[in-house]
Amino acid sequence: MDSYDKPLHIISAHIAELGLTIGQKAVEGKSNEIPAVRDLINLLDISGCVIVADALNCQKKTAKAIIERGGDYVLQVKDNQETLKKDIEDYVQDTDLQGSMDTVATCEKNRDRIERRTAYVTSDIDWLSGKEEWENLTSIGAINTQFTDKKGTTNEWHYYISSRQLTAEELLKYGRNEWSVESMHWLLEVHFSEDSCRVVDSNIQQNLNMIRKMALNSVRDYKNRTNSKRPFSKIMFDCLLGCKTIL
Asked: Which CATH class is domain 8-240?
């Protein structure tokens, strides 16, 4: 298949609170995602919105684009911003400094697994080297996640920067919102086997992806309007059979 060069990467703009996808942009290759995200930001009205993005998009130009469009950002910091991550990590891991940060913790149990999430936030960032290079950088934070099950306990740390003066409770919320996009991709794979699609033409790939997301948006809208607890698969199956009960 000489015409099939590489898989298509599709960037999605997702409203986490509603579970709805409102825009997307296709690129060839993961390295092209960074400018594509900025292009997508410039196409949308994000005034007053908080844009949550993964570590790949923790970029100074992306932060600036968000602010210029009237939004705020919460960006996860990983090794692609090594110095910034190290500075935040050193601050948060200092016991005395950690004690001065706004802190909140939640604990959830799902069957045999217990998840404890603790968020730490501070706006005391005058000491942070290079902070002026990040547009409107106002606060830093971290989320510590502990999973406990029969196999033992795992411990993960995630670090963040934000243009808002966040509370620890808000950081927990936005940190969880970041996973809503992952959930959307999971639904596309589970219900439509998207990763197994062998369509070669890039235009057809994009069109199919949009149609699948429109279907998920419709089901999500139905669940929100009716407070339905039924799983996606059951509602979609009724749609397939043309059942009037879900129209």
From this structure: alpha beta
